[in-house]
Hints:
The structure is a single chain. The protein is mostly helical. It is about 60% helix and about 0% strand. It has 11 helices and no strands. It has helices spanning about 15-20, 25-35, 50-60, 70-95, 105-115, 115-125, 135-155, 160-190, 195-215, 225-240, 255-260. Helix 4 runs parallel beside helix 9 and helix 8 (about 160-190) packs antiparallel against helix 9 (about 195-215). Mean pLDDT is about 80; it is low at about 265-280.
Amino acid sequence: xxxxxxxxxxxxxxxxxxxxxxxxxxxxxxxxxxxxxxxxxxxxxxxxxxxxxxxxxxxxxxxxxxxxxxxxxxxxxxxxxxxxxxxxxxxxxxxxxxxxxxxxxxxxxxxxxxxxxxxxxxxxxxxxxxxxxxxxxxxxxxxxxxxxxxxxxxxxxxxxxxxxxxxxxxxxxxxxxxxxxxxxxxxxxxxxxxxxxxxxxxxxxxxxxxxxxxxxxxxxxxxxxxxxxxxxxxxxxxxxxxxxxxxxxxxxxxxxxxxxxxxxxxxxxxxxxxxxxxxxxx
Length: 282
């Protein structure tokens, strides 16, 4: 009910205002941001759009989802992100729905699995500016896969509370991966296709959440099987993330050409040198 009044309290994008020659409005927003963050700002500062931003302003073509698959690097990144969304959504909702196959009070289990998300999001907020995106996505999904495999083993041994405990650990890690893949997608996609790209990946993610109830039904045949499926999905998705470019501290790609230039060292999570955050620019 409160959502319609939300936009009036949110500032417009200063970059968007500059590209539309509304510099005075952009200056008001930047002054407010500097005041809130207690940063010094010259009284008569001048705003200028970068070369890439000017090129984006001149390029007013209508982009569609097919443009995500036209060029090789952007196509690779899009497909990897789509699979990561599919994996994370299927595993995230699957662990919640799988409460019916766990021992103990289902209401208590549901409460605990919901509470497991709170420290995941708070912890992610604290480390986000200091942790490489690739390492974050790889680490949370591989560790989440390990928790799911442990839960599968204890479910097979009928050790109820250990199964529930590792299920909570898996939910904690996959919740962090869910937030991480959302942020990563926005940083990899170029500006003209950013909302389209996130929507495209999100669609594949919702396909995963739609299929997860069928995975849960496997538990009626063999109790550990849903955990094993989630572990396989998150492991493969995490390993595929190695081929994504590192985006921490780097300027967002503003054109399709920029998206093709973000090719990074894809053989190592720590490959490439992140630029200073001061190099982002407008």
